Amino acid sequence: MSDDPKAVNRRFNEEAINQQRLDAVDALLADDIVDHIPLPGQGPGRAGIKHALGLFFGAFPDLRLEVVEELAEGELVAQVVRITGTNKGPFMGMPATGKQISVLGADFLRVRDGQVVEHWGFVDQGSMMAQLGLQPPG
């Protein structure tokens, strides 16, 4: 496994997100990873992130993540991403809408010894909810 932070990030994006392989999470995230901005109700560590990803994959079975920009310095990786998918399952307590989303987000990761040990992530939730028809566009 590569220790290069960009290579770890790219592998996580492709295998864990785009291929929806939760087994890749075990290899690429430290067991005690700190997620600084967890989803409501998300548990700690790798298990909490795997659970959150499973919820997203259930709600958006065709979920895709495209890296728009990526920067790295030392252990840190920053990326701007576009997330797309079709809401075909319940999401955050709301029924499926059948609508597609295309939203921007940003992730910041700290990588040590080939694994992500810290994560900060932001998604344009207002735009996502408006595209799902769950709040008025604004």
Description:
The chain is α+β, with helices and mostly antiparallel strands and 138 residues long. It has four helices and five strands, in the order H-H-E-H-E-E-E-E-H. It has helices at 5-18, 22-28, 45-59, 125-131; strands spanning 29-35, 64-73, 76-86, 100-112, 115-123. Helix 1 (5-18) packs antiparallel against helix 2. The mean pLDDT is 95.
Indicate the topology:
Elements: H1 5-18, H2 22-28, E1 29-35, H3 45-59, E2 64-73, E3 76-86, E4 100-112, E5 115-123, H4 125-131
Parallel strand pairs: 1-5
Antiparallel strand pairs: 2-3, 3-4, 4-5
Brief sketch in words of this structure:
The chain has one domain: Nuclear Transport Factor 2, Chain: A (Roll), CATH 3.10.450.50. Helices cover 31% and strands 36% of the residues. The chain has 4 helices and 5 strands.
Brief descriptors of the model:
138 residues; alpha+beta; Nuclear Transport Factor 2, Chain: A; five-stranded mixed β-sheet; 4 helices
